[in-house]
Structures are given as structure tokens and as C-alpha cells.
Amino acid sequence: METYKYLIIGGGIAGTTAAETLRKEDPEARVAIISDEPYPLYSRILLSKPNFFLEKVPFDTIWMRKAEGYKEKGIDFIGGRRATTLNAKDKTVTLDDGTELKYEKLLLAIGCPVRQLPIPGLDKKGVNHVKTVDDARDIITNVKKAQTAVVIGSGFIGFEMCDMLHLAGVKVEAIVREKYFWEPILDEPAGRILERKMVEEGINIRLESEVTEVRGDERVEGVTLKDGTEIDCQMIILAVGVNFKGEWLKSTGLEIRRGILADEKLKTNLADIWTAGDVAEFQDVLLDECLMCGTWINAQMQGKTAAMNMMGKDETYRQLSFYTAHGFGFNIGFVGNVWLGDDSELIGRGDPGSGKYTGIVLRGGNRIVGSFMIDRPGDMTPLKRFVESKADVSGIKEKLANPDTDLATLIGE
Amino acid sequence: MSDNKITSIKVDRDTCIGAAPCVAVAATLFELDDEQKAVMLKKGDEKTSDMTNVADLAAEGMDDATLTAAAESCPVRAIFLYDAEGNQVFPE
Questions:
Q1: Which of A180, A210, A274, A283 is such that its CA lies 20 to 30 A from the CA of A119?
Q2: Cα–chain-centroid distance for residue A125?
Q3: Which residues, in sequence order, are CB contacts of A401 under 8 Å at separation 6+?
Q4: What is the ipTM of this complex?
Q5: pTM of the full predicted structure?
Q6: Does B32 contact A381 at a Cβ distance shorter than 8 Å?
Q7: Mean of the per-residue pLDDT values for chain A?
Q8: DSSP of A129-192, one letter per residue?
Q9: Minimal Cα distance from B72: which residue of A?
Q10: Min distance A98 CA to chain B CA atoms (Å)
């Protein structure tokens, strides 16, 4: 049986960064990455970008490592193999071809699988998730042949895919289960700003709608909605988020909630096992809560922190999450945690009618924990500082709400 | 004389999405500006995304390995590196 000092399950940016960090800091160590995809690291971020899909940049732009690069760095890349069993007591991992590997330290950087919808007919050709490079290849082919596309879901991926399909000249039918676009990540005024522009551009948004059936023989020919409406389409994009269950990990005693539970050092409840990236439900020391974060930079930085701690260091993961989405001319920024809980409060900043609007999320009435910004990118840097500082803002709520106030001048007040 | 071939660097602002791995990899070279786009820190407190001579960067020790690592980290390939003849060295 092969033994690795550091075994990493997951070949995304978290797993790859961890492996490279380990080999750099511990050049003699045996390090392996197990990936269920046969490819070297690629950019999942590009998967929803129009420049890529519309082939304005070469397809090969997607590759972020060369296949031969792993060997050069002393990393065994075991691609196209799925880990099926973890035995934390014997410290072994079994792969889908029966291979058993022994580890001293293990990193679970396995990402989150896409949410599966119980809709009959989703197995037809022309139905795509937006998750892997194979999905991307398929979508690029399908876009060229489609007159109408149905996009299911109105989050980040749904929004950017609507934009891409629209730019490609495809008629877009957006099927949204919620009352407004991007609920509940955005508030209603923000969601309506996007809807107005998307409808102006010709997107048909069907709110409070659900697909109940996909029609067609081998290929998709249309969908039927809950209210009986029939829409003809030649492709469907599923943009309904992720859902991690991790059944194969539970029998060994790993603690799992929405993701793999970890402390602020990314250590799981089991000895010698860490986690990083999208799948980690970690103790965030900046927001003082346990949460998951699906951004590229988070995965990269967590891969590094986990690797350092696997080598015996004692590093706390301390990064405020932020990301931006682009589409229909909008620049939409997110900072921290914008989910509204029982003790949350949302301060609107700016007139939604102007199309420029920021939502600031407070927790406990006094502390900023997150924000979204529609075409107000200048608010992001000061809002990051507010969240990081954990400052009491209970006395400056009116100033925060005034769009003409420079937020940077309020820090420290 | 150094062995470094890379003499200039630029960020394509239209492509940049402010994901910021470049800042994580080379914090003395990059930061995000008010539009959440990557800018390079130049000598004299200047900041720009435009084509910049490596010698004019504020950070010291920006050798080929460091610059390439920063450019390679960009998940949308918005960072471009050039040699003295103006040939694009990265992306290859």
C-alpha cells in the first residue's frame, strides 16, 4: 500500500495550493492529490464569464497548471479517480478502482456537488450544470445551436449565464422560484434593479415559477412549468447552487452539517484531518460564526492555511470573503455574510430608482457583517474595513444610509 | 546583470474581476482600487493597471518567478507579462 505523508482529496484551487505549499515547505514529503476529474487545475471562475463562453479568449485560457507540472513539483496527481471510503482509524482512503492509500495527514478539499433537482427529463442532452470544464465544452456547443435557453435559478451563476446567453444572441427564459431575482441574497429593491434592466434587454423573467418536466426525446425540446405553461427551448442551464451531503464520510465519524465542520485552523473533529475550500464549514473569526464560503480566493487561502497547519504550524484562517459578479452592465459586489438572520437588519444606501444601491447588513443592531453593492464599487473597500474592525455602528446608521456620505470618513467614528 | 526576461507588466481592467489572488500572492505589487480592479503600486505612490516597466514598480525584487507566480494566479488571465522586445511572455 502506498503511503503519503500528505494526502489531498480534491484537485481544485484549495487542494492544489495545499499540495504546492506542502512540497515547498517540506520538499522531501510524499504528497498526492486525488481528483475525480482527469484534468489539471483549471479556472472555475471562467466558467460563467462571457469572454470565455463566446470564445473571445482561447479555450486553453482555462488551464491553470500543466499536467506535467505536478510531477515537476514532486506531487503525485491521481486523476479521474473518486475516493469512496475513508477510514480515519487506520488512516486509509480507498478509491473507486479499489486502490487503498495510507496517509499521515489528510486534507479534504472536495468541493460541493451541484444541487440535484427532482425534475423528470433532466438527463436529456442540452441540459447543463455550470460546474466542470466538460460542462463548459458542452455549453459552448449548445449555445451555437440554441434559439431559446431556459435558465433555472437566479443566483450568481444564473445571473452571469443569462448575460452570456443574451450576448450570444439566444433568447433567455429565466425561471425563478423566488419572488424576485437573487432572493434572498439581495433585498427586494436590489433584485428589482437587476430585473428591470434584464427585462429591458429582452430577458423573460418568470418569477415564482418552477419547472416540473423537461420535454423531448434524446435532446431537450422544452419545459413545462408548474402552472402548465409550456416553453420550447433547445438548452437548459441549471444554476441552483450546491448541496453537500458527504454520506461516504459520515461512517468514519466526521462531523458534517451543511459542509465539513472545521475550527478556525481548518481542523476537523477527527485526528490528522483538515478541510479547505467550498466544502469547509469553518469558524470565521472575523464574522464570529460558522459558515461556508464558495469563492476562489477563499479556497486558495484556506488551502495554504490548512497546509501550514498540517505541517504543525498554528495558523488561524483570517480572511474576509468578497467577490464581484458582472452582467448586463452591472458591477455587483459582495462582502462578508449577507444572509439575513433573526437579529439582522438591512440598511439601504442610495435610491434604488437610480440603479446604484448598496445594502448593508447589521447583526445585533450594531455591527456590520456583510454588504452587497449594485454599481457602487467604491463602497466595498470601506465596508470591508467596517466588517473587519467589528466597530459599533449603532450611532451612525443614518450616515451609513446616506449615499452621499463617504464611508471611508466614517471609519473610527 | 540578472537573468530576468520580463521587463513590463499590465492588468487588463475589462477582464479583471477583483478576485484578488494576485494580491494574495504578491501583496507588495498589487492592490484593488476603488473599482475593485487590480492596480500595480509604482514608485512615487502612483498606482496603475496600464503597462508598467518592472523597474518602476515600488516593490523590490520583482524577478521573473515572482511576476509569473502572480500572473499565473489570476483565474481570469487579466495579468500580462512582456519581455524587452515587447513579446508577450505570459499568458503563453
A1: A180
A2: 25
A3: A347, A348, A349
A4: 0.90
A5: 0.95
A6: yes
A7: 96
A8: ESSSHHHHHHHHHHHHH-SEEEEE--SHHHHHHHHHHHHTT-EEEEE-SSSSTTTTTS-HHHHH
A9: A64
A10: 34
